[in-house]
Amino acid sequence: MRGWTITPVGGVCFAIAAFWLIVVLIGPWLAPHPIGAIVSFDIFSSPSAEFPLGTDYLGRDMLSRVIIGARYTVGVSLAAALIACSCGVALGMITAVIGGWFDAIVSRGLDALNAIPHLMFGLVIIAAVGTSLPVLIGTLALLYTPGSFRFARALAANVNELDFVHVARARGEGSFYMIREEILPNIIGPVLADFGLRFVFIVLLLSGLSFLGLGVQPPNADWGALVRENVSGLAYGAPAVIIPSLAIASLTISVNLAIDNLPRRLRDRLS
Description:
Layout: H1 8-30, H2 62-98, H3 100-115, H4 118-129, H5 133-160, H6 163-170, H7 175-211, H8 223-230, H9 239-260, H10 264-269
Helix pairs in contact: 1-2, 1-9, 2-3, 2-5, 2-7, 3-5, 4-5, 5-7, 7-8, 7-9, 8-9
């Protein structure tokens, strides 16, 4: 059973990631106040029994805003990562099987999209179309689909050249069967690991967009927006800036290290 033993670092990271997932699922019931409610006239107050994380620049409870903001940070990022990986993996497998001019057109088009700096492209799209949750999710998914496509296509192309795939093709199986039965089961593990990394990248990009004012809009807020709102009062109410920053760091680092510290046998199965 040694191969299934998780490392101490992996255990801590899984626990942190699980903690934030629980917060996302039951956040509205955990938050002591509504996310936009002004509950104190003392702005940037220090942590106290009444307000464990202090208050922000308007006197709103930071604990409530961090808890509910987790839903926006994790929810938007998770939705975008799911769309990006689903589209990228599907296109990657299809192009690997079909090949030819179709593969060349799709690959060069997505390579061109991937060459554009993500933050710059996101700013242009959101500034032109407007800021809303569907626009945010769609923009983030569009930006990270090319990377998922390239990863899945490389895996699928390798599997497509193996003997059991040639046997299936020789007995007359169609492309859909090849993708569903022969290729996808053999690349699903690395794809899931890549999904975790895409999620981390999207969290960071979403936080950057929100810090620039083009992410989740008031009175709602994700963690990046919480940093932007309170950064002017850093000298007076540091917890209002530091706590959401630590939340972003804890989520992204824990997910990243959790993937790196998967048990060895599980990594072997996912490879």
